[in-house]
Here is the input.
Amino acid sequence: MSNTRREFLGQSTTIAATTASAAWLYASEANADDKAKSDPNRLTVAVIGPGGMGMGHTNLLATNSAVRVAYVCDVDEQRAARAAETITKGSGQAPKIVKDMRQVFDDKEVKAVWIATPDHWHAPAAILAANAGKHVYVEKPCSHNLREGRLMIEAARKNKVVMQVGTQTRSTAHAIKGMEKLKTGVIGEILVAKAWNSQRRSTIGKQQPSEPPKNLDYDLWLGPVTYRPYQSNFLHGIWRWWYDFGCGDIGNDGVHDIDVALWGLGMKTHPTRIAALGGKSFFDDDMQHADTQYIVYEYAAATKAGKPKQLIFEQRIWSPYVQEGFENGNAYYGTEGMMIFGKAGKYAVYGPKNKLIEESTGNAPDLAAHHANFLECIRTGARPNADIEINHLSTALCHLGNIATRAGRVIHFDPAKEQITGDSEAATLLTREYRDHWARPIV
Here is the structure.
């Protein structure tokens, strides 16, 4: 885990949620008396998947007087018990512990859920929750494949629920300020945006199938994924390196920076052409996803007078060095200058001949503000900062980049139809095979 992400997880439990104006959100201390706890304005919620990032959410929700955490749901008994203890200590109320999320969805008192499961459960869980009338906060990447993202949008709109994705930089004051600065034209017209993920990861080793631990319901963990025998380097957290369960580090850390690149570039559609080089250059282990990637996404000109634009993603998850001062960062190249941006809390704007125009520091990714934005939108019916439709475009870049990397050739994409053209083999990777399971999305 990178230092930046460690610092974020450590800091996130203490960051004040300052962006919400409604007193409804943070009206009293967490350990209020029973009368306050029964306040009808307290939203009844559940946490599904209180693991790594899920515990970051759990820590914040446990002391958030705007909510009552009624359930923690996890297929790992030990993780569920740990999360329940955190909720009890923080709020003074013990949540119910369940391992089957359907019990959460069946409870009409539950109005919203936080989903921090492995990637392969994001869309199935979010769609089931939306169909049950629950508002959804789902971790990034929003989907395991591109088709699932479209199904999530349809479920959110059909059921009129708020669906926020966990790219919390969208609610961070420092980032909002930087993106507003770009909109002023300070560096001219932005033609190219770049995102990079450069950090040292650890090997996942090589393992053979074995019996799952007794505290884990492995079949429920698999969910709608086609059955395969358990291996000890599937979980926890290691699932992201496997095609069946995760999207690689481009969908883990990379999606944050891709999302910020797309935000600054101002594109509200998909690219039309994707070229990628990469694979496993460093790790000799069971990891299936690439440890090295260089991907170029090209966007067609919006008008005859317009210019095509590019978004570039670089990934080196074996590198002990930072780039432009950030292990995860962004650059925006305009006709009159350049911005270097780091979500950890800094950006710099340069004009012609690299003249420094402005340098700004700010706060790290603000998880509490992202929670507050989600809760405020539930109250008002507004679209959240990282609405599912916004994040679908960013996460689609992860999927298309992985497809181009695996295919080893240029991919042509129809943004309106969300289909790869002229390449039936690559097109099969836009969705996946599911087993017959109650959580199988209808594709």
Notes: The longest strand covers residues 190-198.
